[in-house]
Amino acid sequence: MPRTARWLLATLLPTWIVCFSLHVYSTAENGAALSPFFATPVAGDAYPHVGGIRPERVSRGLDIQAGDRLLMARDVDLAGVGYIGFYAWTVELADENLELPLTIERDGRRFTTLLRLSTTGIPWSRVALWAFGVGLAVLVLVRVPENRMAQLLFAGLTSFAIFESPFTINYTLTVIYNSIFVFGGGLSLAVLMRFFLLFPDDMPPERRLPMSLSWINALLFYAPRFSYLAGGPIPPPSVPLVILGSDIALGVLSGGAVFWNYVYSGPDGRRRLRGLLWGVFIAFSPLPVALGLSLLFPEMDLIRFGIDVMAFTAISLPIAIAFSIVRHDAFDIDRLISATATFSVALAILLGGLLAVAPIAASVLAEWTGLSRDTAQLAFALVASLALLPMTRSLRPRVDRLLYPDRHAMDQGFQELLTELAQHGETETLISLAAARIQQLLQPETTVLYARGPDGFEPVYTSRGEPPTAVPSSSPALIAVDARQGPMMRSDASLRPLEGAALDELGAATVLPFYHRDDLDAFAALGPLASGDPYSSSQLALLSATADKVEGERVRREDAVQIRESGERMRSLEREREEVQAAYAARSRSLAAASHDLRQPLHAMGLLAEAAAGRELDEGTRALVERLQMATGSLGGMFDSLLDLSQLEAGQVEPAIQPVALAPLFERLGAAVGPSAQEKGLSLNFSQAGWAVQSDPLWLARILQNLLANAIRYTESGHVSVSAEATGESVEISVTDTGPGIPAEQQRVIFEEFRRLEGGEQADERGLGLGLAIVDRLTRLLDHELSLESELGEGTTFRLRILRAADPVRAEHGQIEAVSGLAGLRVLLIDDQSAIREGMTSLLEGWGCRVQATACEEEAQQAIAQTAEHGPPDLVIADVRLAAGRSGLDALAAIRERWGSGIPGLVITGESDANTLRRLREEGHPILTKPVPPARLRAFLQRIARQESSPESD
């Protein structure tokens, strides 16, 4: 809402409500009584004089003349009292019969006369008039707050209602009211006159009367009334007649302005002004008629009668204004009259209730609160007026049905149409249904519906006669309809020439477009209404609501279909995804379930091969054993790769990101792949500067080990190097070889499963081609950046960019020392597989260990007990899964509980589940997975032997 409209509503409306409530109370108490004459000061005299007698209020038998000196009102000395003060004292001092003794002086003679205050002939006429008028002004401003005419109407009517609602209750309130009347009345008349000069808004500017006429209205009001205060320039005895004449002049001037605008307005303006002229005529005609009759019959009190009648007929003025204001896209007259009539009815009911209940309620309220009776009654009236709005809201539907049954039926019909459109089953016929129902509800002479066709818009429905011809796409009418972006009505004052021509071409009084996603899809050409009336803004709003409903329903249904189809596609994709994940999970579970049993013989075979290699063998047998060792190691690597890839594809790998120091990691990698590089005569180099990175230590080691194994496998001569270099917030680890290089066309596919390049080792020793596929998946899982640079004949470099650790952790590490001294190391072995026990025993005894091989916890406890004189074993090696569902972890815990918690333990397992392995490590168990590389087992035993021989172990 514009600032001006908000300011008007926030200032004038509350002021009127207060003044109106006081006027209602004053009318109920004393008929809004006033003195029948006014007092005016005289220069050089402390006492006021009778300035003039108001002919419409004078009482019979009052002995008073203009010029009489006013001395006392009851027992109050009137020295220094002026026009406003005299009015206030008469109200304050009057008794319940509105009478008070008045002491005056005339020609040097003092005497006392009885003054009776005057009331209006029809006291409640102003209540209905201003309730109706201000209600109308509020509705107009709320509906079109940005319109200047609406702002002028509200300001003029509301301010006029304020100063024409007298509240003469006591001295203070009478002073306030008379001050408002004298100083504010002219301004409100000027504002009202400005409205009459500017209405209607379609009048040619060169024909408008000058706006200065509004200030003439103000001058006609102020000139005689300021003579009340100052005693001039108009002689005081003549002031009442001058005021009467100025009131007539105000009416003539306002009516003349309206008549002038009627003559020079267009057809639509004349239609709106016709009602206003009748309203002005009806409102003000009683006064000149009464004035003329009083000249013919002076003995009759016709002036007072005419003013009283005019107060009653003045209600026709706001009604006429309501009939005259018809804005095409804002509101229509019947709704205005309905609302204002409802307001008046509610106000009448409220006032009736106040008159009946207020005195009793005020007495009770005064007794409870200690307030005076008058104050309590005023407070009760103000609070009760708050019931006006909910009462109006409740009465409005009943008044509508009573005053406008046709309109009520039309509203109900369109409401049913909107419901029908929402429930109609066929989307394609929504527009046709809407056009047919519009014809039924509004009954225009013709209704033609045009729908988009291949070459323009073709008629698909007509209510009468033969269908007209199609409208081509290039038609100016179609262009005008589309440009309007809304209903186009012939009686619209803002109609442009091109749009008027479009209506003529279509033979329509109103065109209603139907859009579909901002594109004009159809339009209905409606002929004139059969009643001959123009389309009202209410009808236009109902038509717009119908078009919007059609578009909304079509879009909603299309979106519902798309959402349903999308939902079905999403559910289908989700089912496929779940099936794929289930397949991966099933494969992973199958491999995981089989891994333990598959690893057992492989582990045993590796142990036996390693044990055999340590024996005295002839050359042929040794060659076979070495080939067996190589095949066992290759088979174990392939088996680990398959399990790792299966876990990655099934989403079972959850990385544990933490700072990882590169120095110990590089040392372990060197120890792991160094023998392979040495066998091929390759130089293996590691370089780093003590950096640490954010990664999973287990999987980062697997990535680098796979890259190194791949580089060593395909490099026949030269070197393989690993380096780390800090770049900003990251560390870049490079694995470089001097191998044959990778062709450009294969640099993408080498990361796919089972892809192997030609060259390098023999095909039977090359593996399954899963190493780089695992690298690719792990780097994506860890959110590391992997890149590749390679040229044929120049070698290959893999670069891995990892976020640098914020606080580099230099993990304690020790290089795996080739320490001998396993002789005499006492090892307790717990494994339920006899082949593994035999192979492990043979291998460990070949290294000089003393081995006690057992199948379960009970055998282990017995074996320790038999050698108890030598103390507990130096190391317990236990398989996780034992026979009968038992666990080697439980056996290890039981041994430690009985023989000492410091006994070292090593867990050997065939489990491949990453989560299970991580849980075992978090519980503090050193773990080797089957098949166990003998070198890793020997390194672990050497660390145990070194700890046993250190002084700290004592």
First-last Cα distance: 93 Å
**How many strands, which pairing sense, and closed or not: the largest β-sheet?**
6 strands, antiparallel
- Unreliable segments of 5+ consecutive residues: 326-333, 759-769, 808-819
- Given helix and strand content, the structural type is alpha+beta
Describe the global form: elongated
> Which whole number gives the mean pLDDT?
77
Number of helices: 28
The amount of helix comes to 55-70%
Q: How many beta-strand segments?
A: 24
Rounded Rg: 54 Å
Strand residue percentage: 5-15%
Physical arrangement of strands within the biggest beta sheet: 9-8-7-12-11-10
Outline the structure in words.
The protein is α+β, with helices and mostly antiparallel strands and 954 residues long. Helices cover 55% and strands 14% of the residues. It is built from 28 helices and 24 strands. A hairpin with a 2-residue loop joins strand 16 (719-727) and strand 17 (730-737). The longest helix has 77 residues, at 537-613. Mean pLDDT is 77; it is low at 326-333, 759-769 and 808-819.
Task: Please give the structural blueprint.
Elements: H1 3-30, E1 37-40, E2 49-53, E3 69-73, E4 76-77, H2 83-93, E5 99-106, E6 109-116, H3 125-143, H4 148-163, H5 171-198, H6 213-230, H7 239-264, H8 267-284, H9 286-296, H10 302-313, H11 316-324, H12 333-369, H13 373-384, H14 388-403, H15 405-423, H16 430-442, E7 447-452, E8 456-462, E9 471-472, H17 476-484, E10 488-489, H18 497-506, E11 510-516, E12 519-526, H19 537-613, H20 619-649, E13 658-661, H21 662-679, E14 683-687, E15 692-695, H22 697-714, E16 719-727, E17 730-737, H23 771-782, E18 785-791, E19 795-803, E20 826-830, H24 834-846, E21 850-854, H25 857-866, E22 875-879, H26 888-899, E23 905-909, H27 914-922, E24 927-929, H28 934-949
Parallel strand pairs: 14-16, 20-21, 20-22, 22-23, 23-24
Antiparallel strand pairs: 1-2, 3-4, 3-5, 5-6, 7-8, 7-12, 8-9, 10-11, 11-12, 13-15, 16-17, 17-19, 18-19
